[in-house]
Amino acid sequence: MTLPLALTLGEPAGIGPDITFAAWRRRAELGLPPFYLLADPAFVARRAERIAPDTPVAVVKPAAATAAFATALPVVDIAVPVSAEPGRPDQSSAPAALAAIRRAVADVCVGGAAAVVTNPVAKNVLYRSGFPEPGHTEYLGKLAEEATGVAAHPVMMLWSPELAVVPVTIHLALKDVIARLSESLVFETGRIVARDLRERFGIARPRLAIAGLNPHAGEDGALGDEDLTVVRPAVDRLKAEGIDARGPLPADSLFHQAARASYDVALAMYHDQALIPIKTLAFDHAVNVTLGLPFVRTSPDHGTAFDIAGTGRADPASLIAALRLAAKLSSRAQSPAVARRA
């Protein structure tokens, strides 16, 4: 039997439940892989009655999710009651969101699910609850390490048919980027990206374009020396390992159409350097993929959209893309002839 995907609730006051209903309703039309939602079944039933009354809900164990998927949205109970209303996170939001993530990782690590797909969370809601991690990506790395006993270096990649990008530093204030950026971080990130593009995306020799930190990649030291002392040595180390890496390259000319044709993924030095171009090119269908984990994890590349939660107007395109990509990457039968950007 096909293993289902474990889909987390995300922030219950956001659009995660809404886009889940919308994706499930299009399952046959789009040939979506089977998935189950990790959530409070009573909460899911209430939200479905509000915006998707044609969506039946079946409370199941993961092993029964694939069989139930054709006729009902399978829901696996996380045993955390949820009281949040659309657009209004409450004291149940963070515990439910985190419980769903923990259960999804546990399920995939014991072979009960093929991959983890996460609905959007609200980081400010998590932080107010005492959540110590910078974000989803880092938390998944911690859970993976706890489950396997092997240290994980999670790497966030934003993928779309038009562009794939990796921010080397992720959830940091801009003033902290330079202190955190190091030759070893750039090198290890590039090595993980190259490995996972080979092993999961089927790209025999991935081409990495590595952006400089400073304007014009530092103008040979005239605009900051980090590109000479940090980025370039990391690129040289990647090349010495046989990885097709170029850089540091000026970020302002790295993302036009002709430039994008010359690489498979661009490594950026900080969050917005990576996310601005991909959200400009593929705002409604980009997928967040976590590399460097012992399992596949994908997520929609958008937030919780509190302003439209519970209205039925949320676009499920990015979640649909995340489900499809998770199924493709986790399939043992995946062909090595996967397109350059899957």
Short description:
By secondary structure, the chain is α/β, with parallel strands linked by helices. It has helices at residues 16-25, 27-30, 41-51, 62-68, 93-109, 123-128, 136-148, 174-180, 183-199, 226-240, 257-260, 271-282, 317-330; strands at residues 5-8, 35-39, 57-59, 73-77, 116-117, 155-159, 164-167, 207-211, 244-249, 265-268, 287-291, 297-300. The longest helix has 17 residues, at 93-109.
Fold and architecture overview:
This protein is α/β, with parallel strands linked by helices and 342 residues long. The chain has two domains: 1-152 and 310-342, Isopropylmalate Dehydrogenase (3-Layer(aba) Sandwich), CATH 3.40.718.10; 162-284, Isopropylmalate Dehydrogenase (3-Layer(aba) Sandwich), CATH 3.40.718.10. The protein is built from 13 helices and twelve strands. The protein has a twelve-stranded mixed sheet, with helices on both faces. Residues 332-342 have low confidence and may be disordered.
